[in-house]
Amino acid sequence: MSEITKEILDRMIDGRSSWEELVAVMRADKEPDRFAKYREVLQERATWRDRILLPIALHLCIVQKDDGARVVKCDCGHEFGDYRRNWKLSARVRVRNTKAGIDELYPHPMGCNPEWMELREYFCPGCYTQLDVEAVPPGYPVVFNFLPDLEAFYAEWLGEKI
Amino acid sequence: MRQVEILGIDAGGTMTDTIFVDTQGRFTVGKARSQPRDEAAAILHSAENALGYWQLDKAAALPGLKANIYSGTAMINRLVSRSGRATGLVITKGLEDSLRLERAVQVWLGQSYVDRLHSVTHEHNTPLIPKKWIRGVRERVDPLGCVAIPLYEADARQAVRELLAENVEAICICFLFSYLNPAHEERMKAIALEEMAAAGRSVPLFLSAEIHPFRGEFPRLNTLIAEAYAAEPSRRQVQLVEQRMKESGATVDLRIMASHGGTIDIETTQLSRSLVSGPIGGMVGARHLGRELGLANLIATDLGGTTFEVGVITGGQIGISLRPVLDHFYFNLPMVDLSSVGVGTGAFLSFDEYSRRVRIGPQSAGDRVGMCFPDGGCERPTITDCALITGILSPDNFLGGEMPLSVERAKQALDAQIASKFERDVYEIASGILEMQEAKMRDELRAVVLGKGYAFSDYALVCYGGGGPLHVGNYTDGLGFEDVLIPSWAAAFSAFGCTCAPHEYRFDRSTLLVIPPGADDAAKLAVARAVNETVASLAERVQREFALKRGDSGEITLSAIVRMQYKGQVTDLEIVSPKLMLESAADVDALVASFEQHYAEIYTLSAQFPEAGFVISGAAAVGSQRTTAPTLPKTARGPATPDPKALKGKRPIYWKGTFMEASIWSMEDIAPGNVVGGLAVIEDPATTLVVPPGKLVELDEYRIFHLRDARG
């Protein structure tokens, strides 16, 4: 069990790891600096300069702007605004709530009944990457996936200044 | 002039071990590095090494051999490395994806406990037969053995034609419930023969009903495929070994150690029996020891580099499992029942930063020993490192000093990687880790013995394997075994065991015979007839296997084994039938009584449930032939006090929180009758026996140490 290097993490992000490499990572103990390493990898991959505070989904990070604002930012650079407000509210959305729309993804009868459940696909307005999908009953409020307590996470878990 | 009589071969992945036994029952062990491309060469090197200790050469020794037993890992490696023969499969239509679905369990079978718990580490095996070589044929036999859908012969013909066109080198045929009614498989075979004749190309056919007529569709399929895919192609390899041995002077035929604990000829029709043979030897050796010493109930414990294995011998019978797991596959073979836990002496130690605990294993250094062995290339300390640090193991006595170990390297690694995290000194941590490991072994013993409903006080424990004697004093502590036996040849015990195995075939068949509560004589006789029929057909097969051997001689002893359960329960028990053939209702009663007694011994008398009636779920015929087995050499007992020259010196050992002065003895200078009290270390080039404080060992006339409490 050798060290989990930044190169391995980089390959994992793109899904380029072999199964053997992936299993070795899953079996290994998680080293205390894993988060720091992961953040460095993401920072190096980013096309922009803002400091990453916390990745919150594939392609999405909470970043710190020069003026101190903390915003949700896509890989492409599109900014969704303050991280305490659900980023989905300013994303592009496609709702699949018809049988035809669901059948496009799931061959009959493997899909859901649109009267009971709909699929909401959220896209980045900057690059049109699909960022998230919700499967919820029709009328259900937009789900706010994750509102992190950044101060506590940095102070109490990482023992670092934010 | 010394005359050698038996040769045991263990052709492992890294080392090839051989053991020669002479007419007096004494033995010598040789080692050589394995050569996958030329197995025979490695065996002959190893044999030369062994004979060298007796100043014999192989030209003089080999012609006198009366038994030559082979065990090895070639077949299982062929499975694991997927380097078997291109095999086609004809299966009941609808089940073509069995090998990809793997009944779900195979995604975690054979994995470590941690990996089993986490579904992310579950993994599908690459199927032994790819989908393109699998054909479904419409047919159906129901669970009572009646034909529900006839065999669609057009499907059958097309399947064979297509597989032949794919150039497969063998074809397996496996239909549902064929063990109850083989008619469709047999018809399929006839059709395949016709089609092959028409195509002018012939490949071997393997039928599940012929090779493994067992209940359990998936393991039956696996076993069938293993036979066609891995075992059969290995036959040539073993034949080559036999040929080379004969060119070097041996006159006796080679036999292979089989998973049920007997040895079989290399011409056998069922070579997959020898898929696993290594760990079987120790159990057979323990049974042999028990017979020689008059002990019927034994717990055999084998502590090797990777695992701690426990097996049970009750009433002189080795426990047999019919559903063993090999690598990641479920099989349907009678195999010596062993349970194992990954706390061998080579188990890696790591510190989990999150839980702040030490973890033992499951990965292991194997023959790389640990940090103490600079050439091993390990990055983490192991159990062996801890044994060196506390001083129970001497750095100058590993493999007789051929492999000098560095205590300093072990200490540095354990300190840096673990002890410093706890801010404790390295001795305390090393000793604590050994206690953890020994506690895990005790837990395993409790699980095996108490879990089956047995009591420690009814069993004697036999300890062997390279690391066994080092830890036995602690892992048996407080359990209350009747006796604890440590053969002085513990390190070579598995190879020794192979040489004790009888020449024996065993064939099983699943049955479904019900004896209802209050059955009358007519019903019992009907059951008796059915059992007899099964046993007779299996016995005939046993006879045929013996007949395959050229120039065979010697009398075959046959016995019948019956698997029984209370109707409605799920666990069956194996009992040796009181008679080979059941001739009367009274014989059936005797069989039932024998089952009930065995059941009561395991699950207590009050658990008996005759009101439910009985089911005979399987029968087996076992045929064995008397072979030459080593007799344990006996020397008269001398005084209790060892010869002073046996005392090599003193050395401080860290023992549970404090340094103690231990006496160090030379094992070969300890004489029968001698008693050594703890804290003591008795050393031999191949093994180290530790006697804890408050305990003593006594060497008996067979050179077996008995460990017990000093005050008792």
Characterization of the model:
The complex is a heterodimer of chains A (162) and B (712). With 162 residues, chain A is α+β, with helices and mostly antiparallel strands. The model of chain A has no long low-confidence stretch (mean pLDDT 93). Chain A has five helices and seven strands. Chain A has a four-stranded antiparallel beta sheet. The longest helix of chain A is centred in the N-terminal third of the chain and has 12 residues. In chain A, helix 1 packs across helix 3. Helix content of chain A is 27%, strand content 24%. Chain A has two domains: 45 residues, no CATH class; 113 residues, no CATH class. With 712 residues, chain B is α+β, with helices and mostly antiparallel strands. Among the domains of chain B are: 145 residues; 122 residues, 2-Layer Sandwich (Dna Ligase, domain 1). Helix content of chain B is 31%, strand content 27%. Chain B is built from 17 helices and 35 strands. In chain B, strands 13, 14, 15, 20, 23, 24, 31, 34 and 35 form a nine-stranded mixed beta sheet that branches. A six-stranded mixed beta sheet of chain B has the order 3-2-1-4-11-12. In chain B, a hairpin with a 4-residue loop joins strand 13 and strand 14. In chain B, helix 11 packs across helix 12. Chain B is globular. Chains A and B meet through helix 2 of A and loops of B.
**Average pLDDT number of chain A:** 93
Radius of gyration of chain A: 19 Å
Distance between the termini of chain A: 32 Å
Assembly state of the chains shown:
heterodimer
Rg of chain B, nearest Å: 27 Å
Q: Please indicate the count of domains of chain A.
A: 2
Please state roughly what percent of the residues of chain A sit in beta strands, choosing from under 5%, 5-15%, 15-25%, 25-35%, 35-45% or over 45%.
Answer: 15-25%
Count of DSSP strands of chain A: 7
Low-confidence stretches of chain A: none
Number of strands of chain B: 35
